[in-house]
Amino acid sequence: MPPAKALLTKTRFQLRGTRRVLLEQSRFKVLFITVFALLFEGLLCLVFHDAFRFLNSFGGAGLMMIGRLFALFFLGLGMMLTVSGIVTSYSSLFGSDEIPFLLVRPFSMSTITVYKFIQAAGFASWAFFFVVLPFISAYAWHQRLSPLFVLWTLLFSIPFLFLFAGFGTLAILLAVRWLPRSPRIRNTLLGIGGLLLAAGLFLADPPTAALSDTQFNVTSLIPGLRLAAHPLSPSFWIAEGITSLTHGDTSRGLLFFAALLSSALLTGLVIERVGARTFYDAWQRSSAGSARAHRRPVLLPVLRHLRGLLPSDIAAIITKDIRTFFRDPVQWSQAVVFFGLLALYFFNLRRFNYNLLPDQWRSAIVFLNVFAVSAVLSSLGSRFVYPQLSLEGHSFWLLVLSPATIPRIMAAKFLLAFAATATVSVTLIAVSVNMLGTGPAINAAAIAVIAAVSLSVCGLSTGLGAVFIDLEQRNPAAIVSSFGGTLNIVLCLGYMLAVILPFGVLFHLREIGILDTHTFRNGLAAASAWLLLLTLAATLLPLLFGLRSLYRRLPVKPNKATCPRNNN
């Protein structure tokens, strides 16, 4: 059987197995995910359409921005696809258990590389189309375009997806193979590369004096518009090609599609050649990386201080979990991408002049930012905190038989998750309110709400993770997608909405003058009491239920009397 056909056959059988697993899922889970996805897509479409209407109210400048916004949208998606391609390609090429199996089969290095590249691009495609569909639907709705506009967009999106995902695959192949092992040299080269990239982006913009007044006004309103509208940018090709085909200019549209398709095919060819020359050496280098000698410990000196701050058993469990987290680049890279994008947005709030908006708009932006950070916390809590007890596997019984009791094991898991999430989330919201320049009352409310969300998400995820513990499952995705994982994300999202909306509505009504000072204070006191009661319930009850569930699963309740000790 030819290698390509063999890999396609394997993929077909894997898809059949996935389909069989999906059919075995509970109806509640399938119904919830379907309803939530449809509601999310519909609301996102309405938000995009309202944004287009808002831009249209600017008159001529708004019409120019709407026309260019399509290219800017795809430029942002392309950058995110490149980052996602780096993460997924590293996991597919160097972190997959399937690679040793493929290496001993009659597959060439180029075939394996291209196969894993297509697999990584497929992993990134679902999120890409999940965002593209509501945007193009709102754009077609606002511009009153024909339904063919959606068809042309989906057609152009396929080579666009493979092009930018290929950039990420090439970057990770070259980095793993050729990046020096010395941390100093590696960090220096990365810094130089970042400076060169920033200089390239700066030089790509034409000088201000060379622009007309109209061009300068439009590009100054939207950062990155010049790069998105550059004739050599793929975002310009996809925007102009789709628009041309929609308006009946077939030759121009096909020209841009040919440019995009040929670039994607060229990227695939380059990946094939680079993979043939570098993949095996890069894979060996990655596999041998853990056995390097003279590796300077980075976290060890920091983690030693935990022994002086916490009891020895809790400090040992926390140290183990921190090391496990940072030893898996696929895990910590997801958290860095999510929070990094939020930090980039918050630090650029004044660049968009949001701090100059009226008070009612700034208060709305504050709680929208709290909502965004809370949504990321709910997602990461379900992805990392919920499965942590199940991922202990059969070694969980070693923890049970150790001097650490079950409550202390759960306390260690909960404290680590809360310390990590609260530190990052509170810092981001503090930066947000400082950039917006809002008053002390709304600042304190926003920080209190995000701290409460961090506490409750960790309590729900840790407690429900103990209630629905599955020590036989080693796949984190399967643990997260189980009934318990679905219930956890539902409760986290429900709690998030229940505590954010009262504060957001109260401050908005105060800023527009509907509530007087006395009524606002009473409402704020009621909202604070509601926040306190709901947070205590969402934090303590799941932890108590989790403890009861773990005690029922154990044949003997471990305590200090039954735990073996070394008397020497």
Give the secondary structure arrangement, pairings included.
Layout: H1 3-23, H2 27-56, H3 60-94, H4 98-103, H5 109-143, H6 148-178, H7 183-204, H8 213-221, H9 225-228, H10 234-246, H11 250-287, H12 300-304, H13 306-309, H14 312-326, H15 329-347, H16 359-385, H17 396-401, H18 406-436, H19 440-467, H20 476-480, H21 483-511, H22 517-553
What labels describe this entry?
disordered C terminus, 22 helices, mainly alpha, 0% strand, 568 residues, single chain
Describe the overall structure.
The chain is mostly helical and 568 residues long. The chain folds into two domains: 263 residues, no CATH class; 214 residues, no CATH class. Helices cover 79% and strands 0% of the residues. It contains 22 helices and no strands. Helix 10 runs antiparallel to helix 11. It starts with a helix and ends in a 15-residue tail after the last helix. The C terminus is likely disordered.
